[in-house]
Amino acid sequence: KQEVTQIPAALSVPEGENLVLNCSFTDSAIYNLQWFRQDPGKGLTSLLLIQSSQREQTSGRLNASLDKSSGRSTLYIAASQPGDSATYLCAVTRNGFYFGSGTKLNVKP
Amino acid sequence: KAGVTQTPRYLIKTRGQQVTLSCSPISGHRSVSWYQQTPGQGLQFLFEYFSETQRNKGNFPGRFSGRQFSNSRSEMNVSTLELGDSALYLCASSLHRGESPLHFGNGTRLTVT
Lengths: 109, 113
What we know:
The complex is a heterodimer of chains A (about 110) and B (about 110). Chain A is mainly β and about 110 residues long. Chain A has strands at about 5, 10-15, 20-25, 30-40, 45-50, 55-60, 60-65, 70-75, 85-95, 95-100, 105-109. In chain A, a hairpin with a 4-residue loop joins strand 7 and strand 8 (about 70-75). The termini of chain A are far apart. The mean pLDDT of chain A is about 95. With about 110 residues, chain B is mostly beta strands. Chain B is about 0% helix and about 55% strand. Chain B is globular and about 35 Å long. At the A-B interface, strand 4, strand 5, strand 9 and strand 10 of A face strand 5 and strand 10 of B.
């Protein structure tokens, strides 16, 4: 059974700092890995999707990497802003969609 | 382009009743998946539909069921509601199954009393 873990559970940083969120999964036989953000009371917004054959994806200040063999992914956020405050979740896809419990990020002005 | 639409937004039901939730995917998306989100268990996968067929199912009891119609709209049903079924139920759609990003609706908040 696929298990997805995210560390840390919560993170508070001052504005402008670069930061890394971690995601690990137990079964490396995945189709892809996605990163999402969730704002309170809302659904999830897709940030980046990395196919199993890829090593990384970039969108603006976000960069996600995937190391399938070690079962790990990282989400790098450059020059963090207060608007980045949200819960970030990763999910792996194979025979369903399996989510981590998320990292709650607070960026202080 | 309209996003994923879930109705109703809020629902209050009594233990033992049954409930039906609806999801309209983004136009052109044929894959729809459902999730239960609770503070204790996080976001858990319920099932995935593609071309009116259930393709994958999570680890939930048979009280949870779903279906997809020919226009890709989907419904999920929970029978014999329990207090523990209180949760945010989210629906997501994607363009290409297993390859495209998931687009989520804002969910249906179900409270069972």
